[in-house]
Amino acid sequence: MLKIDGLVKRYGERVVVDHLHLQVSGGEIYALLGPNGAGKSSTLACVLGFAQPDAGSIRLAHSELPIAEAATRHAAYISENVALYERLSGVENVEFFMRLSGRKPRRQEIEALLERAGLPPEAWGRQAHSYSKGMRQKVGIVMALAKQASLLVLDEPTSGLDPEASVAFGGLIRELANQGTAVLMATHDLFRAQELAHRCGMLVAGHLVGEWVVDALHAGELERNYLATLAGRPA
Ligand SMILES: Nc1ncnc2c1ncn2[C@@H]1O[C@H](COP(=O)(O)OP(=O)(O)OP(=O)(O)O)[C@@H](O)[C@H]1O
Predict the structure, then answer these.
(1) What is the CATH number of the domain that holds 205?
(2) For the chain, how far is it from start to end, CA to CA, in angstroms?
(3) Is residue 135 part of a domain?
């Protein structure tokens, strides 16, 4: 569970997130939409403890810890380009990641995770520099699975993936959510957001200006709402 109350983020004099309230329950996928520069990544950076909020509170998994510590313990992050140790194989990357969090995984355990994420076995032992973007995303999912993260944060997760990889990736996200993980994802992909998310929120200039329950929308309605909201018309 993620609860953001009155979040403010400034860069110098400029307010880029302005008193944001947002909640994502366990098992829920929430898509954060909005034009370039709306404040989506800044919001995610505050949630992950990468940036210091100027006001407001962020609570994760009912933890009383400061958000940076809570995020280190309970959150996993998959960016547009998952950073891996390029000279290590997929298996070695996962092993290294798990050792960093104090675990000593057996090879079978790592392979079971890679299999579950759909990384082809022929790639398990290959150096990560040869991985496609979709393969990197899958290793990112393995890290989230290995960590048993309560919150998964994604920034533009499907940008640049081909449709098949994008659908497969969406399936994995759903699977994680079905197991109780809260998912917060920033995206410009309205089609995928409507397909994947339970709720969508729209940020404009740091303000949450619209929020929709996806089940209540007809096909293509999210895009119409988004464009109407941007144009200042009622959605
Ligand atoms: N480190 C920083 N220093 C100064 N300004 C920043 C910094 N990071 C972001 N900004 C500014 O904050 C505003 C919000 O940026 P942010 O990256 O959060 O938007 P976004 O909604 O994620 O945009 P995009 O869709 O283009 O990724 C922008 O005007 C951006 O230039």
Answers:
(1) 3.40.50.300
(2) 28
(3) no
Residue numbers of the domain that contains 225? 2-81+149-232
Task: Say if 160 falls within a structural domain.
Answer: yes
Residues with CB under 6 A from ligand 1: 11, 16, 34, 36-42
Q: Kindly provide the ipTM of the predicted complex, given to two decimals.
A: 0.97
Residue nearest atom 1 in ligand 1 by C-alpha distance: 11
Q: Give the pTM.
A: 0.92
Query: 194: pLDDT confidence band, cut at 50, 70 and 90?
Result: very high
Per the structure, the count of domains in the chain is 1
Report the greatest alpha carbon distance in the chain: 56
Whether 115 is covered by a domain: the verdict is no
Is position 207 within any domain? yes
Residues 6+ apart with CB under 8 A from 197: 29, 30, 31, 185, 214
Percentage above 90 pLDDT, the chain = 71
* Rounded Cα gap, residues 220 and 40, in angstroms: 22
Best residue among 16, 22, 32, 185 to mutate for probing ligand 1, ranked by most atoms within 8 Å of CB: 16
Residue-wise pLDDT tens digits, 49-82: 999 999 999 999 888 888 888 898 899 999 888 9
Pocket of ligand 1, candidates 42, 156, 187: which has the most ligand atoms within 8 Å of its Cβ, to mutate? 42
Mutate to test the pocket of ligand 1, among 8, 17, 40, 188 (most ligand atoms within 8 A of CB): 40
Backbone dihedral angles phi then psi of residue 54, each to the nearest 5 degrees: -90, -25
**CA nearest ligand 1 atom 10, residue:** 11
Half-sphere exposure of 203 (CA within 13 A, CB side): 27
Ligand 1, atom 26: closest residue by C-alpha: 36
